[in-house]
Known about the structure:
By secondary structure, the chain is mainly beta. It has one domain (3-123). It contains one helix and nine strands, in the order E-E-E-E-E-H-E-E-E-E. It has one helix at residues 70-74; strands spanning 11-16, 19-28, 33-37, 39-40, 47-51, 78-83, 88-90, 105-107, 122-123. Strand 6 (78-83) and strand 7 (88-90) form a beta hairpin. The longest helix is centred in the middle third of the chain and has 5 residues, at 70-74. The protein is globular. The relative contact order is 0.29.
Amino acid sequence: MDTKNLVVGQKILMKSGDQFKEATVTEITEKCIEAKPLLFGENERPWMIRFQTNGKQFTLDPRLRHQINCTEYLGNLGVYEWIPAFGGWWREDPRPLCTEFGPWELVEGLGAQCTCRNPNLRDSNP
Length: 126
């Protein structure tokens, strides 16, 4: 996906294998593209991902996790969850949130079939 033309507020798709989620671009910096899914499962805590500028979710070799400073290596990249007790977004662990098909990536077009179209899902605004 050509991420150079993305704008804040734009609706996009996130893809992991054959799984899709509609999302909104919430921030764009020189270091990351932040996107938040539009809908979540009934018992799912809201989350968002700060993608690399190429539109791909970071991947970190699990064997390196204890050998490098993850915060320094990843900067602000990663998955953040809404934690009401903390009153904001929190990245507890820099491992990627993904499906069994691998990390998420940003893809073009909203014409694809989205797995997020489920009557049991709720709006993403915490």
